[in-house]
Amino acid sequence: MIGGGQLARMTHQAAIALGQTLRVLAASPEDPAAQVSPDVVIGAHTDADALARVAEGAAALTFDHEHVPTELLAALVDAGVNVAPPPQALIHAQDKVVMRRRLEELGAPIPRFAEVAEPSDVDAFAARIDGPIVVKTARGGYDGRGVTLAADLAEARAVTERYLADGTAVLLEERVDMRRELSALVARSPFGQGAAWPVVQSVQRDGICVEVIAPAPNLDDDLRGAAEQLGLRLAGELGVVGVLAVELFETVDGTLLVNELAMRPHNTGHWTMNGAVTSQFEQHLRAVLDYPLGATAPIAPVTVMANVLGAAHAPEMGMDERLHHLFARLPEAKVHLYGKSERPGRKIGHVNVLGAAGGSVDDAAYVAEVRERAVRAAHWLSHGEWTDGWDEHGA
Ligand code: AIR
Known about the structure:
Layout: H1 6-17, E1 24-26, E2 40-42, H2 48-55, H3 70-78, H4 87-94, H5 96-105, E3 113-115, H6 120-129, E4 133-137, E5 147-149, H7 153-165, E6 170-174, E7 178-188, E8 194-196, E9 200-205, E10 208-214, H8 221-238, E11 242-251, E12 256-262, H9 272-275, H10 280-288, E13 303-309, H11 319-329, E14 334-337, E15 347-354, H12 364-383
Parallel strand pairs: 1-2
Antiparallel strand pairs: 3-6, 4-5, 4-6, 7-8, 7-9, 7-11, 9-10, 10-13, 11-12, 13-15, 14-15
Bound molecules: 5-aminoimidazole ribonucleotide.
Residues 3, 5-8, 64-65, 142-143, 267, 346-347 line the site of 5-aminoimidazole ribonucleotide.
């Protein structure tokens, strides 16, 4: 796997159960996956020699991020490496201009967008959509990086000019009036088998996913079906091998629009580690190795995932002690820590909490209670503070 982050770390965890060993290309021995895999190549994902070394003798080569340059992937394929997903699929997760063009061709629902050759294109687009504009870099962004929700036309223009001056390709999109964000997570094997997990709702703060509710509460049956079918259809049309996340907007008038694609395990699938029969990490490996795919059924009426994000000021209490107190208070919380240093806003772990049997995901009070526990647990791990003022020593 190219990349030594948390996604590689959790894929390694799943590989063990399949009798496999995951070799990782990591930037440093401290990377989350490098800490746990016995088979690590230290190097950059932009270095052809490092890529060749990590691929040598491997059954397949896959990714924990989308940043490997296209020409290096083509060279690996030419050298006979089984690159999964293949570069002609992966390009749609690497380059938002390519993705937008292709989705338009396929008739998938997308926001209005424009490619940009010169700053005056911003004015033309603004005149066409008559509403707020989002400026996105075509490549390289994640977790809100490379995305600007421009306050006005002047800002959209200034941001675009700055990127163009740096030689960074950008695209413009209309800012969608949305009810919420959804994610359709599917997997596809080279044999052509597809599998979809229930569509989930994600909650974002400052462009970063903070919470996922699985399945999405109170989702219209037609929309649920349409989102799943769209995910499976795109996986097939694009020739995806592995997990595909289709990030969606549910608009205020009740339609779906595709926001972004990712071809790897995805934050909106972390709930599957405890909440589904097959986790996204195992499924990604099954697909990449062309095994039959696993069952995707949820095992609780609702599972809530809350991210543990590094606090603005890391708490004095060490993570070990925070974990101790968390487990004492919430024995049902399933914690996944990534072994990362705590920087503000950085994803350092997540917590999954399953709702009790007999509840319904469309029951607002039932879901709110599970969310409250998951968020409380994640906040405690980030901040060393209980959101409800609990005193861990007094209890
Ligand atoms: N990642 C990749 N794309 C989006 C995300 N969240 C994961 C990958 C990558 C890690 O985040 O696992 O390796 C990088 O995290 P950080 O905190 O070091 O930037």
